[in-house]
Write a structure and sequence with these properties.
By secondary structure, the protein is α/β, with parallel strands linked by helices. Helix content is about 30%, strand content about 25%.
Length: about 325
């Protein structure tokens, strides 16, 4: 079954009702006090959600606005490119996940070598200067910042006292004795344990991307598919999954093949081919989020399209049984 779960300021952008900022200076246009949740937030997992929730609660109590602040590119891509982890989700997917949480505004701060060389005190000072006023900063308890990672939760608290803003250092979240982290989730996804990944994420594991035109072979076989190029850098094992895809705000059930289509188009980039049950329409050009549920079988190469068609029919029957349809 599917698992249920910083340049001049410019005019502020909106993402389907969510405020989008692209520089620290743009914080001056936000009605304060401003509550900042700061982090990388790759995957927007349970630990990230607690950091964000603390900022939102402070904003609600003080009639201000919460802003989720992150960095692009990932700081490690500048500081230690060789240690840069693969991303669980793209910036576009993260924005969608944050909006689904009810987040009202985000700040995607460019991370450059100049930013990396900024002292912890100067970094916080830029936030204090931009906000009208700065109400709080919420971070994970082990978060470090500033040149040489000289800033930590204790120095942040000292700066909070100096500049009169609150500081929330959110402790780690544990599930099954393990600390929730993006690294742990990457391991679970790579290993195909999507139930564990979903538990750590606090939501169903999903992939996101835009529907592109394919060869339309599946349509000729009687199983039209939406062909999606996943934006995530971390992918689960190739194969066929029971899925749900969000179309016009509704979750539609179906099956999907994740992989490189060895029978009909070998050597191509990994794609997610989604066939939705009992649904018709044109999805070309749309962005789809697809939740991956039960794993039906590994991707394989067949001896021809008829053999492939017979296996797809079997996959559909099995998926419908699992879904109780």
């Amino acid at each position: 079954m599917i698992h249920s779960f910083f340049a001049k300021a410019v005019r502020l952008r909106q993402f389907k009702g969510m405020l989008q900022l692209r520089s620290i200076q743009e914080l001056s246009q936000v009605t304060g006090p401003v509550s900042l949740a700061i982090g990388v937030f790759d995957g927007v997992h349970l630990g990230h959600q607690e950091v964000i929730r603390a900022a939102e609660e402070h904003a609600a109590q003080h009639r201000g606005q919460a802003i989720v602040m992150s960095f692009d590119p990932h700081p490690l891509s500048v500081l230690r490119p060789g240690a840069m982890p693969k991303r669980l989700c793209s910036e576009r997917h993260r924005e969608k996940l944050l909006k689904a949480m009810g987040v009202s505004g985000t700040l995607l701060c460019p991370f450059t070598q100049e930013v990396a060389n900024t002292s912890a005190e100067d970094f916080v000072g830029s936030l204090v200067q931009a906000c009208k006023p700065l109400g709080c900063i919420s971070v994970g308890y082990t978060w470090s910042f500033g040149k040489g990672r000289s800033g930590n939760i204790h120095s942040l608290m000292d700066l909070g006292q100096r500049y009169d803003f609150a500081v929330y250092g959110v402790p780690p979240i544990r599930i099954g004795g393990e600390v929730v982290s993006s690294t742990l989730i990457r391991d679970a996804v790579n290993g195909g344990d999507l139930v564990k990944a979903s538990s750590l994420l606090g939501r169903p594991y999903s992939l996101f991307g835009r529907v592109v035109k394919g060869r339309q072979l599946a349509r000729q076989l009687g199983f039209p598919t939406a062909n999606i190029l996943p934006e995530a850098e971390v992918l689960p094992p190739y194969g066929v999954y029971v899925v749900q895809a969000e179309v016009d705000g509704c979750w539609q059930a179906g099956i999907a093949n994740l992989g490189v289509r060895p029978t009909v188009e070998p050597g191509v980039a990994p794609a997610l081919e989604v066939h939705l049950f009992d649904w018709q329409g044109d999805l070309y050009g749309m962005d789809l989020e697809v939740r991956l549920g039960a794993f039906l079988r590994a991707e394989q190469k067949f001896n021809g399209v008829e053999e492939l068609k017979a296996q797809i029919q079997t996959d559909v029957q099995q998926a419908r049984l699992l879904l109780g349809r």
